[in-house]
Amino acid sequence: MNKTMGKQEMLTAPFVHEMMEATYNMWGVGWDERNGGNISYLLKEEEVTPYLDPHHVLRTLEFDFPVQALANHYFIVTGSGKYFKNVKSNPEENLGVIRVNNTGTAIDVLWGFSDGGKPTSELPAHFLSHIVRLEQDENHRIIIHNHATNILAMTFTHGLNEKSFTKTLWQMCTECIVVFPDGVGILPWMVPGTNLIGEKTAEKMSKTRLVIWPHHGIFGAGTTMDETFGLIETAEKAAQIYTIISSHQGGVKQVITDQQLADLAEAFGVIPVEGILEV
Ligand code: 2HA
Ligand code: ZN
Fold it and tell me: What are the tens digits of pLDDT across the range 52-100?
């Protein structure tokens, strides 16, 4: 129960439900084994205040990567070490609503993490990516990280050059070039959970909304939960097709040509990232 007079029950908030659904769906398709994956969702103050008193701070957590650009911003985030499988049945323990303080050096926990938990270990990658995506698109709201199975598999069987990886994904399903005309960014293998991988992920996010961590997973950015989930889902589907056809005895008999990809881009009014299509 929300203990603040006159406030609506937090578990009725639409953004809590979106987090419950998204985590459950991602676990269901096998992208978030154990505590794998994390989500952060930028909230407007007016979305939060019907449910909680912004002056009622439960705990304050300092961090060592100042994010002045996010000062006074609210987020709902998944918890460190928490299992996506369990969010739906126990959101108050597995999720938290946080606000960055006005110097960008700490976060106030306003709701959730009820067992004393804290935000995702990938908070640097999330916060720094939010900053970069907001510079690109003022409607940006969501960062999702998960261990999308076939994307992960493809980082073993396909070269890690961003252009050739992007082209292969575009060639696997007709709609890919329309959904991610900016292609994918790919980091070198790095230790997760660090400020450094966060900085490198955010750098890539200035050019693309999908960033692959080889042998680990993927980051996606978007304006809504559906759109961001759908973005990762589309890349993952393409990677699945790649994996299926790569292991097919008969080999590939025909492809979507570069000219066809260019025609698609034109028909749907998107501009494919340069240096990939040869037309
Ligand atoms: O444990 O996915 O990258 C959560 C993760 C870390
Ligand atoms: Zn991960």
Answer: 999 999 999 999 899 999 999 999 999 999 999 999 999 999 999 999 9
Q: Which of the listed residues 70, 103, 121 is the one where a domain comes to its end? A: 121
CA of 178 to the centre of ligand 1 (A): 29
Whether the CB-CB separation of 146 and 26 falls below 8 Å is answered with: yes
On whether residue 277 sits in a domain, the answer given is no
| Whether 95 and 158 share a structural domain | no
Q: Where are the beta strands (DSSP E) in the chain?
A: 38-43, 59-62, 74-78, 95-100, 106-112, 142-146, 185-186, 210-213, 217-222
- Binding site membership of 195 for ligand 1 (Cβ less than 6 Å): no
pLDDT tens column, 198-253: 999 999 999 999 999 999 999 999 999 999 999 999 999 999 999 999 999 898 99
The kind and range of the H/E element at 270 are: none
Instruction: Give CA–CA dist 245/247, Å, rounded.
Output: 5
CATH number where 265 lies: 3.40.225.10
Q: Are residues 112 and 155 in the same domain?
A: no
Domain limits for position 136? 122-269
- Give the tokens for residue 123: 């908070």
| Number of domain units in the chain | 2
Q: Which active-site residues does the annotation give?
A: 122
User: Is the CB of residue 208 below 6 angstroms from any atom belonging to ligand 1?
Assistant: no
Would the CB of 192 count as within 6 Å of ligand 1?
Answer: yes
Q: How far is the CA of 21 from the centre of ligand 1 (A)?
A: 19
Please, what is the average pLDDT of the chain? 97
Domain boundary, last residue among 88, 121, 154:
121
Write the pLDDT tens digit of every residue in 150-169: 999 999 999 999 999 999 99
